[in-house]
Specification:
Length: 580
């Protein structure tokens, strides 16, 4: 049996077509080699397979959905669910499971996999001798905890007696080809061939909405608006952007993210070219060096391969010491504010040539920003709210790769490559009458501006409560006019502000939460969904701690009962985070 090719008129975008083509090629190679699989053309009862995903930004969910499409091509009946939707009893009843999970931060579980992991890793987790499984892990080799979530789940399932169908595959940022190859090899192994004469059904595959534009094929959108929101006296530079979607066919929902393809700082490119003793026209990998360093490779954040090679060649005592001692914190401190130019400047000029340098770099990646508009009000535009990262180090002005590219080098009327990343796990309540509590200091307000526009566009009657803050009200109260109008019109039921530096004692959003803890708990009891957007390292953790304390105090609960209450909010999809 050969799986048919994908018709050119099939409704997939370019990224999906490449993924499925890779999967089909891998599958066909196994079939040609004579390996058995269930017939995709017969009719009858299909074999169940559960495809479970853990995701923070939506990538793992999309791979899981595409894996389900591929499983149907094999005559299986896939069921796709988030990991936190699965309890241990349900897991114990499953027979074939494929887990697709990303890793969040420095080796942490994504938000929608944390409860699953806590149950799976507990001493009370059941034995799983009847389960056959395989794990596909998505990650970023730029982090120490590369694919750690997938590694932990893979190991724990084996410890509980489950049988591994295939070796775990750990995928870097460019995961599409590796994921397609692995699934092409693994899904047939999960297919149990029925007895002779037993027909196998083919279940029609639903096709998720696509637009033709993706990470490898971004849409060149015209920037219609680029204006500063923060005041001139602010220590921050927060800007509002509006991209014109024109006739692109791009669609989005409140809660989604927008991927923006950056171009590296020309000044840094020129300095690197000079340091390498080359010219912008020097050919490397069949292309001009200047072009490669501008638009194809990450040059601001040094790759791990570059760091290791510099350590090997530089003879730099401090770098060698922290690398060989495996001191993560000391290495981070050493690398703080350093870019690739700083690193190769530790090596005598001429020791590392242009081709070697490029070979040590990682591909230039898009930057994802929470969309700050609802299509119900923005019409044919998509809005972003972005802080421009700028700093000075070692005698040079530096900046965020994408934030300063948009701020300084994409003028109104110019274009930038964009695409939409769906985040189905971060949406306004489906019930328009349900209350909604939002915590979004600084640029964390972005998705909540979109949420409020969405609810206004829907005519939703549910109460809305926003906690917003920053450093100083005079210069950092972004969207003040809009929020004031929303409050006056009744759309924003409550607005609590926390400007940390307007008084001697620092006041943050979690401070305001605790001051209003009784009312906040009452809203939760009334069915409110609780949302957080912003910095994951400190703010989101402090908010989580404050929320737990509020529930314990005003719910009259022990810390353990309050933790259970929080877990139920997460399980019910009423505690959702968009953190970075």
């Amino acid at each position: 049996m050969m799986i048919p090719h994908i018709p050119e008129d099939a409704p997939f975008n370019s990224d999906q077509r490449a993924w499925l083509a890779g999967f089909m090629a891998g599958l066909n190679s196994r079939l040609v080699a004579g390996e058995s699989t269930a017939s995709a053309s017969a009719t009858g009862a299909a074999q169940p397979i559960h495809i479970l995903y853990g995701t923070q930004t939506g990538n793992a969910e999309q791979v899981a959905m595409d894996a389900a499409t591929a499983a149907r091509a094999l005559g299986m009946a896939p069921e796709v669910k988030g990991l936190d939707d699965i309890d241990m009893t349900a897991l114990g009843a499953m027979r074939h499971v494929v887990v697709v999970t990303s890793t969040y931060g420095e080796g942490e579980m994504p938000d929608n996999a944390q409860l699953f992991w806590e149950a799976l890793s507990a001493d009370t987790a059941p034995r799983l001798e009847g389960l056959k499984f395989a794990v596909l892990a998505l990650g970023d080799t730029g982090y120490d905890g590369f694919c750690q979530a997938g590694k932990l789940i893979d190991t724990r399932l084996e410890q509980l007696g489950a049988t591994r169908i295939a070796t775990r595959r750990d995928c870097d940022i460019d995961f599409e080809d590796a994921a397609a190859e692995w699934l092409g090899e693994t899904l047939p192994l999960a297919s149990e061939v029925p007895e002779a004469g037993t027909p196998v059904a083919v279940v029609a595959a639903p096709i998720r909405e696509v637009t033709g534009w993706g990470r490898k094929n971004p849409y060149a959108a015209t920037l219609a608006v680029n204006r500063r929101l923060s005041g001139s006296s602010s220590t921050k530079e927060i800007r509002h952007y509006e991209f014109d979607l024109a006739d692109s066919g791009l669609t989005y929902e409140a809660g989604d993210a927008l991927g923006v393809m950056p171009v590296n700082d020309p000044a840094l490119v020129d300095l690197l070219v000079a340091r390498l003793g080359a010219t912008a026209d020097t050919e490397v990998q069949g292309a001009p060096l200047g072009q490669l360093l501008s638009a194809h490779y990450e040059i601001s954040t040094p790759s791990r391969d570059l760091i290791a090679e510099v350590e090997r060649r530089a003879g730099h005592e401090e770098l060698t010491r922290v690398m060989r001692n495996g001191d993560k914190e000391a290495l981070e401190a050493f690398l703080w504010s350093k870019d690739s130019l700083d690193l190769i400047s530790l090596i005598p000029q001429g020791v590392l040539n242009a081709a070697e340098f490029v070979g040590l770099l990682k591909p230039l990646q898009h930057r994802a920003y929470s969309i700050s508009s609802s299509p119900k009000e923005a019409e044919s535009r998509v809005h972003l709210t972005v802080a421009s990262v700028r700093y000075h180090a070692a005698g040079r002005h530096r900046g965020g790769v994408c934030s300063t590219h948009m701020a300084d080098r994409v003028a109104e009327g110019a274009t930038a490559g964009i695409f939409v990343s769906q985040n189905k796990s971060f949406r306004v309540p489906g019930n328009d009458d349900a209350p909604m509590i939002m915590v979004g200091p600084g640029t964390g307000i972005a998705p909540f501006r979109a949420f409020l526009q969405e609810r206004r566009g829907r005519g939703a009657k549910g109460r809305n409560w926003l906690f917003f803050g920053d450093q100083r009200r005079e210069s950092d109260f972004i969207y003040e006019d809009e929020l004031s109008t929303m409050s006056r019109d009744g759309l924003l039921t409550r607005l609590d502000l926390a400007f940390s530096r307007d008084q001697d004692a620092k006041i943050y959003v979690q401070t305001r939460m605790k001051e209003n803890g009784k009312a906040l708990f009452s809203w939760l009891e009334d069915g409110a969904s609780f949302y957080v957007c912003g910095d994951a390292t400190r703010m989101a953790r402090d908010v989580d701690t404050a929320l737990g304390e509020i529930i314990a105090e005003h719910g009259g609960m022990t810390p353990e009962k309050a933790a259970d209450y929080l877990a139920n909010l997460k399980r019910d999809k009423r505690y959702l985070r968009d953190v970075y």
